[in-house]
Amino acid sequence: MTKVLDLLANDIRAARPRHPEKAHKPDQPIARKPDWIRVKAPGSAAYAVTRDIVREHKLVTVCEEARCPNIGECWEKKHATFMIMGETCTRACAFCNVRTGLPDALEAGEPERVADAVAKLGLSHVVVTSVDRDDLPDGGAEHFARTIRAIRAASPTTTIEVLTPDFLRKDGALEVVIAARPDVFNHNLETVPSNYLTVRPGARYFHSLRLLQRAKELDPTVFTKSGIMVGLGETRNEVLQLMDDLRSADVDFLTIGQYLQPTAKHHPVKNFATPEEFASYATLGGVKGFLLVSATPLTRSSHHAGDDFAKLKAARTASRPRFLLTPGSQGCRQRTPENGERVAQSVEHLTFNQRVVGSSPTALTIARLRGEHAENN
């Protein structure tokens, strides 16, 4: 007699809560959203087409996993943000709705499935993000690179934005991603440093800053981007200091949105910033030197990413040439906005008004960045 065993019948993962690390925590009241936070419910025909393509290719999207409020608007335009390397994250951030636990092995065919979906959706700009994969030796860097290359092969004219984890203690991982030549490198700081122990305990603020700075050092032509949420208990001055830190790391684009509590087990919303406060942040960000700042209650990292990329290119073209000091040399390299080429130029040709990377108004931050980087390695 042959006995068939259902090995999944008693699998604890089947009944495991989405956020087991939060199960023991007391419920937090979910605040009522103000009138200025309202979105259209999804359900249009175009939304269904996007959903069907995602399902057909067996892909995961951060739009669904993170319960993004803009999913109806974005999917109606056939804009989906693909989340590679599975739906389970090795971190347990207090704000995030993505499942926490031990992830499955990487799927070798996922990069090609993402690329095929990008082609079928006809995307001119695509955002690819991922869960944290601390279980992998390279943090998933090579999987990112394979996905970028697959999209390039399937849709040569599509511009590619990657939103990566921090690759904490994964030496060489960032270099692998940047070598694949994404058009935008995004890594979110998420919140101000004073919140990290309670909101983002698995990350390190200055490591994330150094990651963004290093990305621009590896490829001066790449656009760098970061995002934060407000409403987690930060002060206005802390947000302004964070802006200065990002400018010291030569970040081009900043997004600021309102934190919305996913469940009663997540970090509570401390306050709802008004549209006027967001407008003020956008104005100050422009003054501080960002090429672009998107700051609204419903702003998210990949919201309007394609339109924002066009604005970034226009802002770079309209700005003065940017000069990059070459370590160990007497000169610097100039990247012309028109074609991205770099030509040698003497430092003595720099004028006071030409911004030099490294000559930021908060040089102390750079020292702290390097110190934190050395400490983590």
What descriptive keywords fit this protein?
7-stranded parallel sheet, disordered N terminus, 3-stranded antiparallel sheet, about 375 residues, alpha/beta, 12 strands
Low-confidence stretches: 1-14, 322-369
Number of strands: 12
H/E element string?
HHHHEEEHEHEHEHHEHEHEHEEEH
Largest sheet: 7 strands, parallel
- For the terminal residues, how far apart are their CA atoms? 58 Å
Helix count, DSSP H or I runs of 4 or more residues: 13
Q: Strand order of the main beta sheet, please? A: 1-4-5-6-7-8-9
* Beta strand %: 5-15%
Gyration radius, in Å: 21 Å
- Overall average residue pLDDT: 83
Backbone structural class:
alpha/beta
Net shape? globular
Q: Which bin fits the share of residues in helices?
A: 25-40%
Short summary:
With 377 residues, this protein is of the alpha/beta class. It contains 13 helices and twelve strands.
Please explain how this structure is put together.
By secondary structure, the chain is of the alpha/beta class. Helices cover 35% and strands 14% of the residues. The protein contains 13 helices and twelve strands. The strands form three sheets. The protein has a seven-stranded parallel β-sheet, with helices on both faces. It has a three-stranded antiparallel β-sheet with strand order 10-11-12, with no helix packed on it. Strand 10 (322-325) and strand 11 (331-335) form a beta hairpin. Helix 5 runs parallel beside helix 6. The radius of gyration is 21 Å and the shape is globular. It starts with 11 loop residues before the first helix and ends with a helix. Residues 1-14 and 322-369 have low confidence and may be disordered.
